[in-house]
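Progress report, Aim 2. The chain analyzed during this reporting quarter is listed below.
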Amino acid sequence: MCESFIHFKLPPQCDLKEFLLSAFDNLSLENLEFLCILLWRIWFRRNKWIHERIWLDDELCFSWAQLHQADFLVANYRKGDTSKEMVASPWQAPEVGFVKVNSDAAWCSKRKKFGLGSVIRDYAGKVLGSVATPISSSVSVAVAESWALEKGASLAKQMGFSAVVLESDCLGVTKALESRNIHDSDLSYVFDSIYEICNGFDMYKFSYTPRTSNQVAHSLARLTLSLENDHIWPSGIPESCNPLVFADSQHVSSA
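Predicted structure tokens for the chain:
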């Protein structure tokens, strides 16, 4: 994402209007969104200095903007154009030699609790293991989704897999993980843990998938809301999730 701004050429001696018009013409939607959030933060920094004599450094402003863009992407995917959710999108199996870890987080506002679910499958759609983690915390959705990925990656490491695809339906988190540009934010601690685990794999990839192809992990995450403690199924998954696993395996078989 930073690269786009580094190579963004501005007209010589342009004013603010020309700058914004040039940005609209040349930046992708994603980078334009980021620019708007960053400008908002710069204005906040200016007011913080004028009124409180507190200065926020450049890196903190940039990291804050990245974190809030991640949350923005999450919110807009979950609550925005639901037509994307209605289009059936089957689960995609990993290539031979890889396992795929699908993760998701579910929130229960009544209990103030997140349920994290991760399931590991092979190229044939066979479940190799799953993990459920309930957390009572007021963290953001992006942080919870990141923790779900971290739990899945940790289980894959414990089980000795060496080539892993880490997949989530949280677009903001997967993009942030790929960019490696999050610093000094609520996400950085979780990301550092994910990267540390992934460095133990021979090969790994981060992947985004729509909710419609992440139903098994979503079902497991919702089930986790009824649990009080972590639970690992070393070679399977709760029985209630099996119909969704079967449906996904049918798509693999017919592919």
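The chain has a mean pLDDT of 83. The longest helix spans residues 29-52. These observations will guide the mutagenesis work planned for the next reporting period.
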